[in-house]
Structures are given as C-alpha cells and as structure tokens.
Amino acid sequence: MGRGPDHSAALPDTLSGASARPAGRAWRLPGWLRGLVLPVLVFAGLEALVRSGRVPDYLMPAPSQVFETILDLAHGPLWQHIGISTFRVFSGFAIGAALALLIGTWVGLSRRAEAYLEPSFQALRAVPGLAWVPLLLIWLGIDEASKITLIAIGAFFPVYLNLVAGIRNVDRKLVEVGALYRFSSYRLVRHVFVPAALPYLYTGLRQALSMSWLCVVAAELLAATKGIGYLLTDGRETSRPDLVLVAIILLAVMGKLTDSILRYAEARSLRWRDSYAGKPG
C-alpha cells in the first residue's frame, strides 16, 4: 500500500517533536553569578575613578584599599567584631520572634485578644527603634541586655504583623471543614492554620532579621566597644572612610548570608506550594 501524505512537515517544530535550536546557541551567565555583576561593575567603576584622581581617596577610598583594610583586620579583631554582632542579632531575633509567635497566634485566633492588645501594639510599632535606646540604657545599662532587648523589640513587630495577617487570611472554608471533622484546637492550628500562614510567617521572619541587623548597628553606635557598629564609630572618629566602608560591606554580607539561610528554610518548608517563580532567562 502507498504511504499517505506526510503532514508532520507542515506542523510546527514544537508539535512535530523536531528540535528548532539555532546553530550557535548564545552563551548565558549562570544564575548564581548574575548577582555579582552589579557589585563588580560598581567596584570597577569606583577603582577607575579613584585611580584617575576624579574622586579624592580621602573621601572615597578605592575598593583595593578597602580590601587591604579587610585583610589587615582579618589578622586582628575582625572576627571578634563579627562574632559579637552576630550573637547579639541572633539572641535578640530569637527572643523577639518567639514572643511574636506566641502573641501573634493568640491575637490572630482570638478577637477578644485583638481588642485588648492590637491598639497598643499598633501605637508602639510607630515608635522608632532609636527612641528606645535612652530608656533601655537607663533601665538596663550599657551591657548586653540593653542591646539584645532593642534588637528583640525591632524583630517583634514584623513577625507579629505578618503572622496575624496570615492567620486572618486563612480560607474560612478550610476552618469549617476542620470543624466538620471535629478537629481539636491543636489539630486545627497544626493542620489548617500553620500551613496556610507559613508564607506570611517567613516573610515576617525575613523582615525581622533585616530589622535586627539595623537595630544592632544602632545599639553598637551608642554604647559598645566591640561589634560591626563599633567599627562604624571608630572609622568616623578617626576619619577613616575605608574602615566605615568595611563595616558597611560586613553588614551587607552578613545580612545577605543570614537572609539566604532563611530563604533556604522557606523553600524547604513550602515545597508543597505550586507558586509562580517568574520567567526563566
């Protein structure tokens, strides 16, 4: 028997299974390197401007000079400054986030608790973090307690607000289904409220961690002899912009590192979500 006409040639490549790749495929930078493009361009531009004399080095030192300062500090107190600031951040963050989890869950589940607590918390949220510093110094002195308390205050409100919002945005039908199956309060929270509120909670935790790094700088600028914030003060008092830039770079790196850890935990915890991740490319 004769073969019928071949209709596959008239079909698009995507339907007929043929591969329509160009002969010379354009090379693309790996995704993990793309985030380095902007910093490298900025550093290269600054290096060129300072080396050419267009920007005075006593105002903006060249990135190579800042790198030399980092190497000098690495043989001295650099790791001690990083360690003490990290300890303060994680201590305050843990205390503030834990309190926010307890109170936020209570307020999110109870309208009565919301009526008593929400107005006061909204008013306190409007108080800048620096406004607490004089009072904390009077109450707790210049030791670690005042610094950690300031960080805990800064970390509390982002977690609290996002957690309450997450609980209140749980689909009412899911709660009704849980009640229909006679879930206990514990099972209802564990199997309905927690999975639904997790995305909001992680958003709050990431915001709280960023706020913790802001608060530790504020605390160390005013009363500290060690820490990244102290490096900022030392650089200002000795008129060393390279030292100030080292502290700023350390804050940026530590903030990004700790945020990446939370993002990894978020991705692992929320693998069940089928959410939009943006266009590839």
Describe this structure in words.
73% of the residues lie in helices and 0% in strands. The chain is mainly α and 281 residues long. It has a single domain, classed as MetI-like (MetI-like fold). Helix 5 crosses helix 11 (228-237) and helix 10 (185-222) packs parallel to helix 11 (228-237). It has helices spanning 13-16, 31-34, 37-51, 63-74, 78-109, 111-125, 129-140, 144-168, 172-180, 185-222, 228-237, 241-269.
Mean pLDDT: 85
How many runs of DSSP E, i.e. beta strands? 0
Give the termini separation.
Answer: 49 Å
The CATH superfamily is MetI-like
As for the CATH topology, it is MetI-like fold
Radius of gyration from the alpha-carbon trace, in angstroms = 27 Å
Helical coverage, percent range: over 70%
Quick summary:
This protein has 281 residues and is mainly alpha-helical. It is built from 12 helices and no strands. InterPro entries: MetI-like, MetI-like_sf.
Short key terms for the protein model shown above:
cell membrane; transmembrane; MetI-like_sf; 12 helices; MetI-like fold
